[in-house]
Write a structure and sequence with these properties.
This protein has 257 residues and is an all-alpha fold. The chain contains 11 helices and no strands. Helix 4 runs antiparallel to helix 11 and helix 9 packs parallel to helix 11. It binds a DNA duplex (21 and 21 nucleotides) through helix 3 and helix 6.
Length: 257
DNA sequence: AATCGCTCCAACCGCAGCCAT
DNA sequence: TATGGCTGCGGTTGGAGCGAT
């Protein structure tokens, strides 16, 4: 795929915007809108690339931008949403009116990550591990801090899978109570399904949550055993728990019990 | 007053995905 | 189906600001 020439090759300006450039950009967008970012700087008479104009507008000049420090409520919302959605800054920003993805990303890296780590350290010293394991995004763990990699939907660890076994024997049972030796023929679900479903559920898209409900009714979890793979069961439970974390609606926890 | 080190944030870079042809 | 153009997104960086020494 061909790439557009970069600003320098085109003789365009980079770096901080001047008040005059801001004024020109605002004035042009107010008069003509921003249907075509690539054509905009030329039309407006700015020596900037479209990308730079778009970023300046979205992150700084837009009239609905909320300036100033984040409130405690906003920070808590970001933490909850990040736990549920991972590094999907634009998705998080969509739920915080007046805040941009760039701003949220910055506040996460400068304040919240640190704050969360301190909380986790404090909790691990004082509290025993909860029985119900919450799937956390790996970028808030010590490991990802060092690697910097952020997979969206981490595979459950062996300990997570074993959390739904029949206790001390570590043996999975089928609906008849017979031991399951292999999950080879059990249905599996693509990881992206869950992240998509969670986004939709949080957005209030009932079609998506209906899909999960149908999935659960196909694979009941309240039987003496499970007739789907442990991973599907675990993902179902994590899905509802993440919806609860994001929406705060306790009724979403009902399918867990 | 000068320097150093750290924090914060605006802006850039490169890639992925969508859409038109 | 393949290709090219464009936008949007997430990761990263550079430098201004500020406090400590």
């Amino acid at each position: 795929m061909g790439r557009a020439p970069c600003c320098e090759k085109m003789g365009l300006k980079k770096g901080p915007w001047t008040p005059e450039e801001d004024r020109i950009l605002i004035s042009h967008i107010q008069k003509h809108g921003h249907a075509n970012w690539r054509a905009l700087p030329k039309q407006a008479g700015l020596l900037r690339c479209g990308k730079s104009c778009r970023l300046r507008w979205i992150n700084y000049l837009r009239p609905d931008i909320k300036r100033g420090n984040f409130s405690v409520e906003e920070e808590e919302t970001i933490i909850k949403l990040h736990e549920a959605l991972g590094n999907r800054w634009s998705a998080i920003a969509a739920r915080l009116p007046g805040r941009t993805d760039n701003e949220i990303k910055n506040v996460w890296h400068t304040h919240l990550k640190k704050k969360l780590r301190q909380n986790q350290e404090a909790n691990s010293e004082t509290k025993p591990q909860p029985k119900r394991k919450v799937k956390r995004e790996p970028n808030i763990t010590t490991e990802s801090e060092t690697t910097g990699t952020v997979p969206m939907s981490p595979q459950p660890s062996s300990s997570e899978v074993s959390s739904i076994t029949t206790g001390e024997t570590n043996q999975y049972m089928d609906v008849k109570g017979e031991p399951i030796e292999s999950f080879e023929n059990f249905p599996e679900i693509d990881e992206s399904f869950w992240s998509e479903a969670l986004s939709s559920a949080v957005d209030g898209n009932s079609n998506s949550t209906n899909e999960i409900i149908q999935l659960q009714s196909s694979f009941p979890m309240v039987e003496p055993g499970y007739n789907c793979s442990p991973k599907v069961v675990d993902d179902c439970m994590d899905f509802w728990y993440n919806v609860f974390l994001t929406t705060g609606d306790e009724s979403t926890l009902t399918p867990l019990f």
